[in-house]
Amino acid sequence: MSAPSRIEIPMFPQGKRIAVTTSWDDGTVHDRRVVAGLNELGIKGTFNLNSGNLGKTNWYGYVSASEIASLYAGHEVAIHTVTHPWLDRLDPAQIASEVLDDRKALEELVGYPVRGMAYPYGTYNQQAIDVLRALGIVYSRTVANQENPWPVREPLAWPATAHMFNTHPLPVGERFKAWHDNLRASGLYYIWGHAYEFEQCKDWPALQRIFQPLAGHADVWYCTNIELFDYEDARKRIVIAANRKTVFNPSALPVTLNIDGQLRDIPAGQTVPLTADH
User: Which of 45, 90, 95, 265 could form a Cys-Cys staple with 22, CB 3.0–4.6 A?
Assistant: First the structure.
């Protein structure tokens, strides 16, 4: 029984060369329209909510606690703290309270562990990072820009590719098209914003104009923020036998391998033979 000559572990499921994810802050009522638009396009979002604001009618108004589970179904709900403070101005105890209380409140509404976050105002310091790590937060998005922010060196200081209205060097949609058209390009395209910005600009058609070019590509994985980290954790745990005749996937997710040029999903929790006779 001959073993494969080479076994590679692609970055994303099914060997997709690019991942697209989005992140939305604050949870105003405009999230309803953004969710509908993303659902139509087949793009996933991570929605960072302040539990202390849910249901309030001040400013633009915020989504209500009762609609959270249904509104964001198929997307991710993440932490944005209870009251949206400047975390770099708080002591560790207050940071912990803002984050952990928000997490617990959101978990009561969505029914799953909430493990991701975005920093209010984009502000943080090493103290905040240390507190978040101690609390088991997997990642926290900043407002910094990086051309290809994956893999990330510090998950608790995670940059995105760009804000949705960023136009440098090109508008987001055109920038993605140029990148995607380069068949040698791979990695993450990560766009963030606030749903209420479409209302502020009186430009709701921008939702389609910006995100339509990102949608519908067969070689793109459309995922939430936490799905990126969960898959990366799973792919890192793959155990390939030294003789390359078997592989063990100890994780709870199927992981795609490229075995001598052929893609194959290794089921969760299974040891699979890889010899030519199978």
Answer: 45
Q: How far apart are CA 235 and CA 11, in angstroms?
A: 8
For the segment 53-85, what is each residue's pLDDT rounded down to a tens digit? 999 999 899 999 999 999 999 999 999 999 999
Is the preceding omega at residue 169 within 30 degrees of 0, hence cis? yes
Instruction: Provide φ and ψ at 232, rounded to 5°.
Output: -60, -40
Dist. CA 13–CA 37, nearest whole Å: 24
Task: Report whether 272 contacts 35 (CB < 8 A).
Answer: no
Whose CA is closest to 102, among 121, 87, 117, 86? 117
Matching residue, tokens 């995105």 = 160
Residue whose C-alpha is closest to residue 87's, from 98, 78, 79: 98
Peptide bond preceding 4 in cis form (omega within 30 of 0) = no
Q: What is the pLDDT of residue 269?
A: 98
In this predicted structure, the answer to whether residue 277 has a pLDDT above a threshold of 60 is no
> Which residue do the tokens 């990126």 mark?
228
Quote the pLDDT of residue 276.
65
| Amino acid letter, 146 | Q
* E strands in 116-260: 116-118, 139-145, 158-160, 162-163, 187-193, 220-222, 239-240, 246-248, 255-259
Q: pTM of the entire structure?
A: 0.97
CATH of region 17-218: 3.20.20.370
CA distance 227 to 133: 18
In this prediction, residue 278 has a pLDDT band, given cuts at 50, 70 and 90, of very low
**Domain boundary assignment for the chain:** 1-15+234-278, 17-218
Give whole-number Cα distances, 58 to 28, 206, 249, 274, in Å: 10, 25, 49, 60
**Alpha-carbon gap, residue 241 to 229, rounded angstroms:** 24
